Amino acid sequence: MPADPVPMNLTNHFLIAMPGMEDASFSRSVVYLCEHTEKGALGLIINKPSEINLQSLLAKVDLSLGRGDLTDEPVFQGGPVQTERGFVLHDPMRAGAAQDGESAYASTMQIPGGLEMTTSKDVLEALSEGAGPRRVLVTLGYSAWGEGQLETELAENAWITVDADSAIIFDTPVDERYDRALSLLGVQSWMLTHQAGHA
Q1: Which of 5, 89, 127, 138 could be joined to 132 by an S-S link, Cβ 3.0–4.6 Å?
Q2: pLDDT tens digits, residue range 99-112?
């Protein structure tokens, strides 16, 4: 009897929307997957800036931004779920001097592959004090898939996937992130077709 197939795990991967993606939230989007299990997936869109910047967002929660390097940093539309809630994707921050174990923040998901995603206000408070993670990407909302949903969309040719590169998340101009993510696969956007291929 054949062994059960190993469940797909695309944690710490990019989902890159194919040209046929009709959902306006995801058209030409690059999603960083923070978690992918047999129960579903959770990710943040990294290339759709909103109308507000980080300084404005902090002002809404009565904080001032203490980091000059982040003053004009946009807040991104992370996805269509919980769009009033903030999510901070960032370099790992450990409590005290520890290099492993506890995150420095109250509510943090440690993502295998090196990044963390924090939903508690303490990370914003750290930024207001001029501290916090060196590299951050802040979103309002997130993207989510239920059990088997992402696998179905992949089978329907809605997305292509590639190992994530944090330099694209944090160091690449926003309007270049889609093409740079594709380039990790050796692909350019003009090479992609709108039709699903079936052998």
Answers
A1: 127
A2: 556 778 889 999 99
Q: Which two tokens mark 138?
A: 């802040």
The answer to whether residues 16 and 183 touch, using CB atoms and an 8 Å cutoff, is: no
User: pTM for this one?
Assistant: 0.90
Count other Cβ atoms within 10 Å, centred on residue 55: 16
The 3-state DSSP class for residue 170 equals helix
Q: What is the radius of gyration, based on Cα positions, of the chain? A: 17
- Give the residue, 103 or 122, on which the prediction is more confident: 122
Query: Are 38 and 32 spatial neighbours (Cβ–Cβ below 8 Å)?
Result: no
> What is the number of other CB atoms lying within 10 angstroms of the CB of residue 187?
15
Tokens of 15: 């989902």
Q: Using CB atoms within 10 A of its CB, is residue 165 exposed (0-12), middle (13-18) or buried (19+)?
A: middle
